[in-house]
Structure formats: structure tokens, C-alpha cells
């Protein structure tokens, strides 16, 4: 017989397994909870969250169909479907670090790994419900966006010694409110005072945000270096270091920080998008492709799934394929782009048809160019209506790149100018602006597409046009810095030229960069033979 006192908290359990639902219902009833709602599918849970305010949601990650628990929790939080006073207990049989870090980044009240016993569940439930109840006044003020009322409620509870166990959380909430008010000088003093009491990671993270807002970048950098060493603040530090390095135009360092962050918590779509943008700026087509692929992978069934993700993957596949020499790898990337386009056609045929169709035709033209059907690609691009209005900046940029690749340089330049003007008016994302400016400058400097640029340079080299060949190889290496074949051609040109082609310091730097890539790559037999011959002949002097 159940003798637990009756509780009236409203609890939603989300789990697609009937046995698990039965277990949760039994366990909760044994603990005295009566208002229990069950949902076996994410969409049913979302509907319940729209129609009801719960005191507690127990969300299981492992779902057999549609959204998983992470995607569901992410949507509930992003769309504000529950008040802050609602406690979240996230449950998962999967404890892979990448999932755990991704979940923790969303800040559930508790993370519980399966299997567990009723006693453990009871402990977690009672702890989070008690905490939420004690802080209800604070959460109600925060939900109402009344910062002054929230601060007053926090200070009131901080004055009650009986609530001493809640003081760290109350102080952290106070810091969050001060940051939301954008009064960074007051917030800076608060976080500094907290750190004088105890080295709270959240206080150090708040201080970093103040430093960045106040233009104290060196102080922010110093604090972030320390935060890297703590597991609970490493993601935060990597993201903010990437932001700092980008502002200082240290794009390689910024990308490296984001690569580490994305490896820790790959489900963050905004981080993956930033990584993709930085990879493009660095001409790192492989990581651009991986970021686009991961975005499609983790967005499947989520609120982020949309045709643009598949178009982005198709574009990244083509960019990557154009930069590699391996025919098998190029074919795989070609197939990936084709599959992505087919997905758009199959899943989004009833959407904004005209805009999507235009972007798909541009991608079809780029695929034709990739397959060495340049004339067909040019004809397809010529058949498209001019862009009177830019509805997709990425789509417009892709068309500008395609026009340049097939030799329609003036049309490409005109479209780049149109995109730049549009972005200035719309205050586009700084990462995208940096990439746009770089792409525009590089395309203006190249009469030919990247692939033809190297081939043309080879012809110039064979005819003894050393300086023109060097300039062409150097530009090709700049836009395809991981192409070992281009690196070998540039290295050979620098070694064999009968006259200086650049300053000695620049020459040695280029020789070192090229040789480092060549040594770390798998060359074709002909390339390997040529490299060894050059290395043997010029090794003592340069290699």
C-alpha cells in the first residue's frame, strides 16, 4: 500500500517505451505524485508543453522515431514553451561524451544515466522541485523580464541565512541579470567581488563577458586561458577565444578553437555554422564539408531541419571536390552533392519553389562544371533569370562563384557587387562578410576558375614564363592550400626558376609551406617521382 503523501505537482514523462512509461508512472505514484502526463512521441510532448505548464519534465533521450530527447529539450527551451520554474531531468542510456557535453550546454537541472533505481530518481526529483519552489518568485520575475523585481527577490533570499545552500545559485542568477541589463561596469565589480570570495567558474565567465563588452580584450584573453583548464568552462572559453581571434583576424587560430569546441559538443548548430564560415575563410574545404555534413546529421528531425542545410552540404561537397585531385574522392563528393539535391527536391517540393529551384539549378551547373561539362554549365547559368532581389545570400554567392567558374567573369563581378551592397544594407553576419570580401577579391584576381588556374600555370611554366607561372601557382595555392599537386608545382617553380621570383624571405617561407604539405600528403606516382628527383637535385641548397 502506498503511504506517501499526495503531491499535486504536474509532471510530464517523455519516453517512447511502454515499459519505461510504466516504470515511471509506478515510481512517481509510489512517491505520491498524482498529476502525471505521459508522451511517447516528441510531437505529442510538444503539444502538451504548448497547452500546459509543468512543474517537472522527465525527458528520455533515446527515442526510436523522429526527434530525439536532446532535440526535443532544445526546442522546448529555445521556444520558451515552459516557464523557468519548470524543472528538467534529462535521462539517457547513451553516455557518449559528445552527447553529455551537448546536453550539459543546454543546462538541464539534472542529468541521469540509465539504468537507475527509484531511490536515485526520488532524490533527483525532490531536490530539483524543492529548489524550483524556493526560487519561484525569482523565476516568475525572470519569466516576466522584470529585472528589477528579480534582483529584489534575489537580494531578499540572499539575506535569509536559512537558504545558504542556494546562495551560489542565487549569486549566479544575479550575475545573469546584471549582464542582461548591459550595465557592464556594475557587473564587472560584482563578478570581481565574487571571485574574491571563491573562484566560481560562472563568475569568471561573467567577468570575461564584461571585459569583452568594455573592450578589455587582453584581460579577457588572460581569463579565458585559465578557463580552458576547467571542464565546466572549456566550451565557453573555446567559443570566446574563437570570437577574440576572429576580431583580430587570426582566422586559423579561431577555426582551431571552434574545431575543438565542436568535437566536444557537436550538436550546437550555431557553433557548427561559425565553424563552416571560418573554414571557408581559411580555404579549408575538408572541414567546411564536415561542418555542413554534421549540421545535416544533427538537424535531422529537429527544429533546424530546412532545405538550406542540404543546399549548404551540396555546396560544400562541390567546393571540396574542386580542391582535390583524387578522382575517387571527387566522385564520392559528387554523389553527396547529388543526394543532397535529391533530398531537397523530395522533401521540400511544396515550399518556396521558385527560390529553391533557382538555387538547385545553380548547383546543377556547378556539378556539370565539376564533371568537366563547362559549356553545359555555362548554358544552364545563362538560362537563369537575373537576380532582381536577393532572397538567399548564400544562394546568390553560390551563383556568383558558379559564373566565375565557367568563365562569365563580368557577370560574376556584377553579382558580387550586388551581394556586397545587399549585405551592407542588411548588416550581415561579420563572419559571412569576411568570407564575402575575401571571395570577391580572389575571384577578381583570377581570370580563370581555381582548377583552370593551375593548368594554365603549368602551360606558362612549360613556355618559360616564370613570373606569370609563379603568380598563378601562388594564387592557386592560396585558394587551395591543401592541394599537394599545386604545392608541388609551386615548389618546383621556385626551385627551378633561373631568376628570383620573390624576396628571399618570402621564397623560403613558401618553400617550407609547400614541402610541409607535400611530405604530409599522398602523392600520385608521377608526382612522387618528380618530388624525389627535385629533392635530390636541390635538397642541399633549399629542401
Q: Could you please describe the fold and organization of this structure?
A:
With 543 residues, the protein is mainly alpha-helical. It is built from 27 helices and five strands. It has helices at residues 18-30, 42-51, 69-78, 97-106, 118-134, 136-143, 147-158, 167-180, 184-197, 201-213, 217-227, 234-247, 251-264, 269-281, 285-299, 307-323, 327-347, 353-370, 374-382, 393-405, 409-426, 430-445, 450-462, 466-479, 484-496, 504-519, 525-538, and strands at residues 7-14, 33-39, 56-60, 87-92, 110-113. A five-stranded parallel sheet has the order 2-1-3-4-5, sandwiched between helices. Strand 1 (7-14), helix 1 (18-30) and strand 2 (33-39) form a beta-alpha-beta unit. Helix 25 packs antiparallel against helix 26. The radius of gyration is 28 Å and the shape is elongated. The termini are far apart. The mean pLDDT is 92.
> What does the main sheet amount to?
5 strands, parallel
**Strand order across the biggest sheet?**
2-1-3-4-5
Q: Please give the alpha-carbon distance between the first and last residues.
A: 84 Å
List the total number of helices: 27
| Form type | elongated
Q: What is the total tally of β strands?
A: 5
Mean pLDDT: 92
Instruction: Catalogue the unreliable spans.
Output: none
SS content category? mainly alpha
Radius of gyration: 28 Å
Key descriptive features of the protein:
27 helices, about 550 residues, five-stranded parallel β-sheet
List the helices and strands and how they pair.
Blueprint: E1 7-14, H1 18-30, E2 33-39, H2 42-51, E3 56-60, H3 69-78, E4 87-92, H4 97-106, E5 110-113, H5 118-134, H6 136-143, H7 147-158, H8 167-180, H9 184-197, H10 201-213, H11 217-227, H12 234-247, H13 251-264, H14 269-281, H15 285-299, H16 307-323, H17 327-347, H18 353-370, H19 374-382, H20 393-405, H21 409-426, H22 430-445, H23 450-462, H24 466-479, H25 484-496, H26 504-519, H27 525-538
Amino acid at each position: 500500500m502506498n503511504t506517501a503523501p499526495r503531491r499535486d505537482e504536474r509532471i510530464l514523462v517523455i519516453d517512447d517505451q511502454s515499459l519505461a512509461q510504466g516504470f515511471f508512472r509506478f515510481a512517481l505514484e509510489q512517491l505520491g505524485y498524482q498529476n502525471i502526463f505521459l508522451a511517447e512521441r516528441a510531437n505529442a510532448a510538444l503539444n502538451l508543453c504548448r497547452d500546459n505548464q509543468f512543474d517537472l519534465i522527465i525527458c528520455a533521450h533515446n527515442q526510436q522515431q523522429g526527434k530525439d530527447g536532446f532535440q526535443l529539450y532544445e526546442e522546448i527551451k529555445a521556444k520558451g514553451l515552459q516557464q523557468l520554474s519548470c524543472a528538467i531531468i534529462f535521462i539517457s542510456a547513451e553516455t557518449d561524451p559528445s552527447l553529455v557535453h551537448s546536453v550539459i550546454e543546454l543546462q538541464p537541472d539534472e542529468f541521469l544515466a540509465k539504468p537507475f533505481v527509484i531511490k536515485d530518481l526520488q532524490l533527483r526529483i525532490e531536490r530539483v522541485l524543492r529548489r524550483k519552489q524556493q526560487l519561484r518568485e525569482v523565476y516568475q520575475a525572470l519569466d516576466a523580464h522584470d529585472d528589477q523585481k528579480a534582483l529584489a527577490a534575489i537580494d531578499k533570499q540572499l539575506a535569509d541565512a536559512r537558504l545558504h545552500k542556494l546562495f551560489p545559485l542565487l549569486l549566479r542568477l544575479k550575475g545573469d541579470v546584471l549582464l542582461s541589463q548591459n550595465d557592464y561596469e556594475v557587473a564587472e565589480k560584482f563578478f570581481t567581488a565574487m571571485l574574491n570570495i571563491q573562484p566560481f567558474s560562472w563568475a569568471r565567465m561573467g567577468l570575461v563577458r564584461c571585459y569583452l563588452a568594455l573592450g578589455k580584450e587582453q584581460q579577457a584573453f588572460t581569463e579565458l586561458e585559465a578557463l580552458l583548464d576547467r571542464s565546466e568552462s572549456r566550451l565557453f572559453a573555446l567559443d570566446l577565444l574563437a570570437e577574440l581571434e576572429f576580431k583580430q583576424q587570426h582566422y586559423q587560430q579561431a577555426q582551431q578553437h571552434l574545431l575543438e569546441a565542436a568535437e566536444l559538443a557537436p550538436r550546437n548548430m550555431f557553433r557548427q555554422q561559425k565553424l563552416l564560415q571560418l573554414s571557408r575563410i581559411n580555404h579549408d574545404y575538408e572541414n567546411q564539408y564536415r561542418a555542413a555534413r554534421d549540421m545535416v546529421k544533427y538537424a535531422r528531425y529537429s527544429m533546424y531541419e530546412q532545405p538550406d542545410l542540404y543546399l549548404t552540404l551540396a555546396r560544400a561537397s562541390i567546393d571540396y571536390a574542386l580542391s582535390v585531385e583524387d578522382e575517387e574522392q571527387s566522385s564520392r563528393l559528387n554523389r553527396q552533392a547529388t543526394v543532397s539535391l535529391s533530398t531537397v527536391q523530395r522533401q521540400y517540393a511544396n515550399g518556396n519553389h521558385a527560390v529553391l529551384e533557382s538555387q538547385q539549378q545553380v548547383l546543377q551547373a556547378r556539378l556539370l562544371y565539376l564533371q568537366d561539362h563547362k559549356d553545359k554549365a555555362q548554358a544552364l547559368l545563362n538560362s537563369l533569370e537575373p537576380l532582381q532581389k536577393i532572397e538567399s545570400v548564400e544562394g546568390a554567392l553560390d551563383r556568383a562563384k558558379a559564373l566565375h567558374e565557367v568563365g562569365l567573369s563580368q557577370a560574376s563581378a556584377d553579382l558580387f557587387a550586388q551581394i556586397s551592397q545587399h549585405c551592407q544594407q542588411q548588416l550581415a553576419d561579420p563572419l559571412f562578410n569576411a568570407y564575402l570580401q575575401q571571395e570577391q577579391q580572389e575571384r577578381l584576381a583570377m581570370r580563370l576558375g581555381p582548377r583552370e588556374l593551375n593548368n594554365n600555370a603549368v602551360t606558362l611554366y612549360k613556355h618559360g614564363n616564370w613570373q606569370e607561372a609563379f603568380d598563378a601557382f601562388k594564387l592557386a595555392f592560396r585558394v587551395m592550400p591543401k592541394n599537394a599537386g599545386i604545392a608541388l608545382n609551386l615548389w618546383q617553380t621556385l626551385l627551378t626558376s633561373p631568376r628570383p621570383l620573390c624576396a628571399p624571405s618570402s621564397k623560403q617561407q613558401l618553400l617550407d609551406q609547400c614541402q610541409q604539405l607535400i611530405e604530409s600528403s599522398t602523392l600520385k606516382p608521377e608526382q612522387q617521382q618528380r618530388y624525389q628527383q627535385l629533392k635530390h637535385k636541390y635538397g642541399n641548397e633549399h629542401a
